[in-house]
Specification:
25% strand, disordered N terminus, globular, six-stranded mixed sheet
């Protein structure tokens, strides 16, 4: 006798199965149907990063123990796709998985398709999610990239009424080869409330999650701060199309952190080293970085993107000495900012580079004063120590600038963020207290999505001259993203001439300032 299928709305799984048993429905089919309705989910989109000439790293996260399966192809149709061996996504890594794609052709659009297979039920897998990136060129073609930092800071989270994190949509329109994320990828020390009252009486409404109702202290809370940003539609769409070259700064742990950091009262965990270790683990889990074999968890690294460009990603947090006066005139542990090992690595990497341009990605500006105690203008959080000859942390910058000059390294450009406004600084030895260097540019952008501040004080140690600045002014600090003062930088290198054009843009994609740099041959 045929079985009549009735409306099962409201039935529990147990009741459904018991009803099936009583009516003689095929008991083998039921578990399959139940599992099919509960497939693994890719929770936060896909990302790619650290892309080179022959490959890059792809990332995704599942909602359960599973295996990430990736197909890679050179066409969007995935004709003749290569299927890669699966890798595990387990609770120990918060169900994230990263895979290095290798042996890819240079200068090619690469398409990848990720899905997760349930470990308990290998016949059940998630819907696929597709991403793409472009491998670095083997020839002298045009290269385009964007940079910036500072996301979800000062309580300004995802506001759907304001369009979400709009700057990511503006950057995506340029179809860049990659993003240099200059740090403060999250604000682990910042609460995101459901509503923030603006000075004009309007209400800023945030998407919220429970973990962002307090400062991050546990590993899961640090992880959640990163995953919060991936809830934004603009961020996920950007991540699926544009690789990220990422570094960290202070807010991945807490504001102005160093080994000597005095932990605020809001924290129950009173050990800065423990907080930093948890933050570092979450950071490395959540981004598609190539891992160092000789120092697992290392952030500083070089990335080659064709004959015209090498990028040197610095880490100005992990090896620094204590924040403080930093007025000593001889180099020692209290003056460390980059640290001796990283400084030696940078010198060697610059010396060995054959690229037209050497972009040094610094998570903090070189000559902008950032006080550790901003309210009382005391202590140093940054390189700059005020007017005068190099002291404390400035000794490292003097050392690397002198090395660049004496070693004949040409065409260095420094890119940074951190201070929440846009600026262009030209470093002129004729105007400097320390003069043993060749002139160079430093460009500042950001925030990508945070409060705006500044301008900061500029010291004369290295002769920085302000050629452009866009800041809210000291009477208008911490403006929300809706005020429009969110910034990113866009760089284009002409393949034929090698010229570099740097443009500072706002979140409406308006070009605020631009300059073209001619490469020195030699």
């Amino acid at each position: 006798m045929p079985i009549q299928i009735r409306n099962f709305r409201g039935l529990t799984r147990r009741r459904f199965l018991s009803t099936a048993a009583a009516t003689g429905v095929d008991a083998i089919a039921m578990p399959y149907l139940s599992r099919a309705a509960d497939r693994p989910i890719i929770t936060h989109g896909v990302q790619s990063g650290d892309v080179g000439a022959d490959g890059g790293v792809v990332w995704a996260r599942a909602d359960r123990p599973s295996q990430m399966m990736v197909e890679v192809a050179t066409t969007e149709s995935f004709n003749n796709a290569r299927v890669l061996p699966p890798i595990a996504a387990l609770p120990e890594s918060d169900f994230t998985a990263k895979m290095l794609l290798e042996n890819l052709p240079s200068g090619q659009d690469i398409f990848y398709r990720a899905r997760f297979r349930d470990l308990s039920h290998p016949d059940i897998s998630s819907e696929p999610v597709v991403g793409r990136f472009r491998t670095a060129p083997g020839d002298r073609r045009d290269v385009s990239f964007v940079w910036g930092g500072d996301v979800a800071g000062q309580g300004w989270g995802i506001n759907p009424d304001d369009g979400g994190m709009v700057t990511y949509a503006a950057m995506r329109k340029h179809r860049p080869d990659f993003l240099i994320h200059s740090g403060d990828t999250i604000y682990a020390d910042g609460v995101i409330a459901a509503e923030v009252k603006l000075p004009d009486g309007k209400i800023w409404k945030n998407v919220t999650i429970p973990e962002k109702a307090k400062v991050a202290e546990t590993l899961d809370e640090f992880r959640a701060a990163h995953k919060y940003n991936f809830l934004d539609d603009n961020v996920r769409a950007f991540n699926a199309e544009v690789p990220i070259f990422v570094q960290w700064d202070d807010h991945e742990v807490m504001n102005n952190w160093s080994a000597s950091k005095e932990i605020p009262a809001a924290y129950k965990v009173r050990d800065i080293s423990l907080l930093a270790a948890r933050a570092a683990r979450a950071f490395h889990e959540m981004y598609p970085m190539r891992e160092s074999l000789n120092e697992p968890g290392r952030v500083y690294r070089s990335l080659s993107y064709g004959p015209h460009l090498d990028v040197f990603m610095l880490d100005e947090r992990s090896y620094r000495g204590p924040n403080g006066p930093n007025q000593q005139t001889t180099y020692g542990p209290d003056a460390y900012f980059i640290g001796p090992d990283q400084l030696l690595w940078l010198k060697r990497a610059l010396l060995n580079s054959r690229a037209t341009w050497k972009v040094i990605a610094s998570d903090m500006p070189l000559s902008l004063i950032v006080y550790d105690d901003a309210a009382n203008k005391k202590g140093s959080e940054a390189f700059a120590q005020g007017d005068g000859p190099p002291r404390g942390r400035e000794l490292e910058i003097a050392d690397i600038l002198r090395f660049i000059k004496t070693s004949g390294v040409t065409n260095t450009v420094w890119l940074t963020a951190d201070v929440h406004y846009a600026a262009a600084h030209y470093y002129n030895p004729d105007k400097a207290q320390f003069q043993e260097f060749d002139p160079f540019w430093e460009f500042v952008s950001g925030p990508l999505h945070a409060g705006t501040f500044g301008p900061n004080e500029l010291d004369n140690t290295f002769g920085a001259e302000v050629k452009f600045i866009k800041a809210p002014g000291l009477d208008k600090q911490n403006l929300p993203p809706s005020a429009g003062m969110q910034f990113f930088g866009h760089v284009r290198i002409d393949g034929a001439s090698g010229q570099m054009t740097v443009t500072l843009r706002d979140r409406a994609d308006v070009a605020l300032w631009s300059t073209t740099l001619d490469p020195k041959l030699g």
